[in-house]
Design a protein that fits this description.
This protein has 16 helices and 22 strands. The strands form 6 sheets. The protein has an 8-stranded parallel sheet. The protein has a 5-stranded antiparallel sheet with strand order 16-17-18-22-20. α6 (178-194) runs parallel beside α7, α11 runs parallel beside α15 and α12 (372-383) runs antiparallel to α13. Helices cover 29% and strands 17% of the residues. With 537 residues, it is of the alpha/beta class. The structure holds alpha-D-glucopyranose (GLC) and calcium ion (CA).
């Protein structure tokens, strides 16, 4: 029998940008509660909340100052309990984001740890500076952060350096210290006791630093060979699994940085994570190459029995802008992606706004951008005298704010997200792209998602069925889902040009993203065309 996370579609909410209930321009938990009926209507079965914990927001919640308190901007613990109750009433599971690799530098543990004599000192990773030949202080090793610059910052209080793989406001916890492991177990039990169904564990494969030796130079994250998917990490996760996750039957999805099929399989098969979240098909490229996407998707689908299936999250571009064409083929490319999302084997994840085809934002300059990664990359490029328009253009390729502009609910002021001034610019295309309009339009992206989510829930072959890939010309992706009660053939054109299908297009059409539906004599697929056939055997 399938587990709940194999049957349900998971919807990721970025709370800051979802729905603002009190007009301060910041999305909040009461706002989420007011949209639970909407999510239910869409057909999703679980929500994953990006962090709602207290945070000074250097990395908008991924810098946690208190793991068991709610960020007052988002509401109160009472609101959170109400959210869990209201979600439960609607049979929606709730998954919390859990960032355990690091805390905020505002966390009480770190504040205490700054004192070398404190019992909390060892919660973090401190080292004395290295001295250069001339006697100048240097960081303890050559590691660099994922967010540019050294991975070490000197704290004046002790004159020692602490490690941070992300910003200097996100000091890494020390998982060599059993006390840290116990603290995290406590945090997890706290939330599981409140009724959450599991966790999305942020950069989980980086938590255990096997050594602090110098690393080989890389563009970012020099040193990563010393802390990526280490045996120490596996040991910690096994402990979590035995003592916390299994007893609560929790769903654990772990974000795996630089994941390979083998490394993800290790985390899943050794009874650690339920599923691993790796990114090969999302990796930054300037431009989009359909055949590369196809290759990556097929490789991971073949390599692992069960994958999370996703094209979007809070860390990158909007999928219709990246894999599709958000101007000429907005509707077609967004629905093509929906067709893949709901028929590939695995758990589908929808990121807020994807269901209406929200697009990248037309930011005009860096002052409109709040994302720390974009801002630091911009600074770095400017430091190397890259002219500002070019630096800005480059940064736009990795800008995480594309996915973070406010959710577009209707065509009223501020897209119905807030009555105040939104914390991040609303995409001006909200007049056309918004939930209200999308729901009313019969052939809309929203209605396509709605229909396909429902079909997935009614079609065991799409959930449990085996998957078999067919050999096709390079920009066409085709596969079959084969279950006891039926066999389906999914054929998709990943390209913006008309392409030869190269395989038999026959059977009963159960879904198509173009209106014409007689495929018997059709040998070509139109731009981003996606058809699902039921094969009558
Ligand atoms: C993960 C998150 C990202 C965050 C980083 C550091 O990659 O998805 O948003 O900035 O970890 O916590
Ligand atoms: Ca608010």
């Amino acid at each position: 029998m399938n587990k709940w996370w194999q049957d349900r579609v998971i919807y990721q909410i970025y709370p800051r940008s979802f729905c603002d209930s009190n007009g301060d321009g910041i999305g909040d938990i009461p706002g989420i509660i007011s949209k639970l009926d909407y999510l239910k209507e869409l057909g999703v079965g679980a929500i994953w909340l990006s962090p709602v914990y207290t945070s000074p927001n250097y990395d908008f919640g991924y810098d946690v100052a208190d793991y068991t308190a709610i960020n007052p901007e988002y509401g109160t613990m009472a609101d959170m309990k109400r959210l869990l109750k209201e979600a439960g009433r609607r049979d929606l599971k709730v998954i919390m984001d859990l960032v355990m690799n690091h805390t905020s530098d505002q966390h009480g543990w770190f504040q205490a740890a700054r004192d070398p004599k404190s019992g909390y000192r060892d919660y973090y990773i401190w080292r004395k500076p290295k001295l250069s030949k001339s006697g100048k202080e240097k960081p303890p090793n050559n590691w660099t952060s994922f967010f540019t610059g050294s991975a070490w910052t000197r704290d004046d209080r002790s004159g020692e350096y602490y490690l941070h793989l992300f910003t200097k406001h996100q000091p890494d916890l020390n998982f060599h210290n059993p006390k840290v492991i116990e603290e995290i177990k406590k945090v997890m039990r706290f939330w599981l006791d409140l009724g959450v169904a599991g966790f999305r564990c942020d950069v989980i494969n980086l938590i255990y630093k096997q050594s602090l030796a110098n690393g080989k130079h890389q563009l970012i994250a020099t040193g990563s060979e010393h802390y990526t998917s280490t045996t120490g990490c596996h040991a910690v996760l096994q402990q979590f699994n035995q003592e916390v996750w299994q007893p609560y039957d929790a769903f654990i999805i772990g974000e795996i940085q630089n994941g390979t099929i083998n490394s993800v399989r290790d985390f899943v098969e050794h009874n650690e994570l339920t599923v691993g979240l790796a990114f090969e098909h999302m990796i930054l490229k300037l431009g989009y190459a359909p055949q590369k996407t196809k290759r990556a998707l097929v490789k991971w689908q073949r390599g692992l029995d069960w994958n999370p299936v996703f094209f979007e999250n809070h860390d990158g571009m909007r999928s219709v802008s990246r894999f599709g064409n958000d101007k000429k083929f907005h509707q077609q490319s967004a629905t093509m992606l929906a067709s893949l999302l709901l028929t590939l084997r695995g758990t589908p994840f929808i990121y807020q706004g994807q269901e209406i085809g929200m697009t990248n934002a037309p930011f005009a300059n860096i002052t409109q951008v709040k994302d720390i990664v974009s801002r630091s990359a911009y600074k770095l490029l400017r430091k190397f005298f890259i002219p500002s328009p070019i630096a800005f253009k480059l940064v736009m390729y990795l800008c995480r704010d594309h996915a973070r502009t406010p959710m577009q609910w209707n065509n009223q002021a501020k897209a119905g997200f807030t009555t105040g001034e939104p914390w991040l610019m609303v995409n001006p295309n909200y007049q056309k792209i918004n939930v209200e309009h999308e729901k009313a339009e019969g052939t809309s992206i929203w209605n396509f998602y709605h229909r396909l989510i429902k079909l997935r829930s009614q079609t065991p072959a799409w959930r449990q069925g085996k998957i078999k890939f067919l050999s096709t010309p390079k920009n066409i992706l085709a596969f079959e889902r084969i279950g006891e009660s039926g066999q389906y053939r999914i054929v998709v054109n990943l390209d913006s040009n008309k392409r030869k299908a190269g395989i038999n297009l026959a059977g009963q059409v159960v879904s198509s993203n173009y209106s014409q539906s007689n495929y018997d004599h059709l040998r070509h697929l139109r731009p981003y065309e996606a058809i699902i056939f039921k094969i009558n055997s």
